[in-house]
Amino acid sequence: MRRRLPLAVAALAAAALLPVCLESQQDWFRTGTGVGVEKVRLAVPAFAARSAEVQTAASVFYAVLRDDLEASGVVDLVSPSFQPLQVPSLPGELNAEAWLQAPTGAHMVAYGNVSFAENQLLVSAWLSDVRNPQAPPVLAKRYRGDLTEEQARQLAHQFADDIIERLSGGVPGIAQTQIAFVSDRSGNKEIWVMDYDGHGQRQITREGLICLTPRWSPDKSRLAYTAFERASASSEVTRTAIHLYSLVMNRRLAFPYLGGTTTTPAWSPDGQELALSSSRTGDHEIYVVASDGGRLRRLTYSAGVDISPAWNPVTAKQIAFVSDRGGSPQIYLMDADGANVERLTTGEGYAVSPAWSPNGQMIAFAWQRNNSNFDLYVMDVATRQTVQLTHDAGRNEQPTWAPDGRHLVFQSTRSGRNQIWMMLADGVGLRQLTFEGSNTAPHWSPR
Amino acid sequence: MVLRRGLRWIGLLTLLVLVAMTGCKKKPVAPPPTPPPPPAPAAPTATLRATPSVIEQGQSTTLSWNSTNATELRLDPGPGSVGPQGSTSVSPDRSTTYTLLATGPGGRAEASARVTVNAPPPPPPPARMSAEEAFARRVRDAYFDFDKSDIRPDTRVTLTQTAEFLREYGNVRVLLEGHCDERGSTEYNLGLGDRRANATRDFLISLGIAGDRMQMVSYGKERPICTESNEDCWQRNRRAHFVMLK
């Protein structure tokens, strides 16, 4: 009898492990947008420079355009080596048949030329459907700007967004969006901003202490963030408060200190209010306050840490947040007035940093299960169905969504120190955006 | 039996002989007239002096004495038996009263001399440590378990010491910094650090320390004192740290 016990135990253990194996396999299922829909195969030949002075601008425009389209996740970009040698710079030069047949196999071709006219950089660009050569071009655009590389980049972003909007059923691209994040490369953690592709990283705050959790206002004019500040100019005592920074006036805006440790601001969808967490009563609770700091009202009444609120961007009627009221930190949901609190995550492990998808239906978050690393997950709020997006690649935390709902940006240690990465919402198409210093807490700007 | 009876007889005989011999002593004669009594012996005198009579600790002084009509002189404490006159050097390490006891046929006499010994200027009375110094010696970080803000038994001990310090140095104010290890998230750890600082403050208040002497800040995981990824290091970072405010 005693001899058999180990066997029984082994059988039990195997039975216990089995569902886990199945579950983790299931986590690999893809849920990306447009699954099952064939991507448009798009060819983008080089843009002809009409004069020597726009040579650089033309090559920058071409490189950025390809990069944007590649990152979009919407099109299947034809490799340049598969493209015909004869490159169109005008609709009349397009030999549709040559682009349609193998090995190119393009459905669409984006092409054009770059010139210098009226003292400005001028890009003439077209998008043509080579399967339907009789029809006029799908897009015919002219983009103007100063003759600088920076402008060439911006014009390429504009054309990329126009193409994506046309090819993805009306959802515009994100090529002109920006990402706010925290970087320590100045020696202190400050708020920085970069283009969505990692270009043009620039320091916004110069507070000299610690800035965390930047959040764009819905109109992109302001950043709210968590900041350590001195209790008074000469004080050695620091405290944590909400700061607002105007990107229009390039200076901080007044916002009152609300007491205790006040952290993690989140804008209401209309930009009129901020949800935040404060320990002003001694315990971290969620509050809502007008964007000038007035009309404070308390939403949660629960012992423990309630932090990281996130407002449903569509309904504005629900706030997701993190609470350890049940033991370990988990994602909870409540009405915007504090009623109907319910736990969304299973209670297992350590779940933090909820971020609503732009359609208000999904929440991305960071979850540490079974003492493994933090990985990113997406939950469909209606069904609670949860899918794991990152696997076995360092710590992955602080996800936020791009306004197209197709991309996520997050911090990851997969390349060593914390860096900002973006990927498509189904976990593919990874790109590292930062390389210098340690970079965390990215937040994607509205469009 | 026979033998013992014999011994008894011998004893009796001996006694008899002794009585007989006593009886043979001659008759006593009348005593001669008593001679005049000798003059009564003079009473002894004694003097004792210490020169100087006040010394510093470690110095010596001279005891000198004089006596008359004494057959025995004792100087205490110290030399003991001494001659009728003399001097000696002593170096008592504390104030002492020396006594010279003169004994003679005429009686006894006593003399005493006090030697006052000044203690060296007392080492400056153990001056109270400066608050900074006492703070550095006695105030220790309060440690916590992972994702917890409960005061552990070992933390109670450290905090009780801290409370004693704060009671003794009643005008010291402190900043309580709540810290976390690197494992949790940045945001949640800001909350957790706050809870640790709060729990520490509440515990000190329960020991009678006024709450307004303690300010708090949560650093979350932003200011680790140890940056390795192991439990030893994580434990060192899961703490409430005290800073003395000026």
Describe the structure.
The complex is a heterodimer of chains A (447) and B (246). Chain A is mainly beta and 447 residues long. Chain A has two domains: 40-167, TolB, N-terminal domain (Rossmann fold, 3-Layer(aba) Sandwich); 178-444, Neuraminidase. Chain A has four helices and 30 strands. Chain A has helices spanning 5-26, 55-72, 96-100, 149-167; strands at 40-43, 48-49, 75-77, 108-117, 120-129, 139-145, 178-183, 190-195, 202-203, 211-216, 222-230, 238-246, 251-253, 262-267, 273-278, 285-290, 297-298, 306-311, 318-323, 330-335, 342-343, 350-356, 362-368, 374-380, 385-388, 396-401, 407-412, 419-424, 431-432, 439-444. In chain A, strands 1, 2, 3, 4, 5 and 6 form a six-stranded mixed β-sheet that branches. Chain A has a four-stranded antiparallel β-sheet with strand order 9-8-7-30, with no helix packed on it. In chain A, a hairpin with a 6-residue loop joins strand 7 and strand 8. In chain A, helix 2 runs parallel beside helix 4. The longest helix of chain A has 22 residues, at 5-26. Chain A starts with a helix and ends with a strand. In chain A, 45% of the residues are buried. Chain B is α+β, with helices and mostly antiparallel strands. Chain B folds into two domains: 45-118, Immunoglobulins (Immunoglobulin-like, Sandwich), CATH 2.60.40.10; 131-245, 2-Layer Sandwich (60s Ribosomal Protein L30, Chain: A). In chain B, 30% of the residues lie in helices and 30% in strands. Chain B has five helices and twelve strands. Chain B has helices at 2-22, 131-138, 153-168, 186-206, 231-237; strands at 45-51, 54-56, 61-68, 72-76, 80-82, 86-90, 96-104, 107-118, 142-143, 173-179, 214-220, 239-245. In chain B, the strands form three sheets. A five-stranded mixed β-sheet of chain B has the order 2-8-7-4-5, with no helix packed on it. In chain B, a hairpin with a 3-residue loop joins strand 4 and strand 5 (80-82). The radius of gyration of chain B is 44 Å and the shape is elongated. The termini of chain B are far apart. The mean pLDDT of chain B is 84. Chain A binds chain B through residues 189, 210, 212-213, 226, 228, 231, 236-240, 260-261, 263-264, 277, 279, 282-284, 304-308, 322, 324, 328-329, 350, 352-353, 366, 368, 374, 397-398, 440-441, and chain B through 147, 175, 183-188, 190-195, 198, 215-218, 222, 243, 245-246.
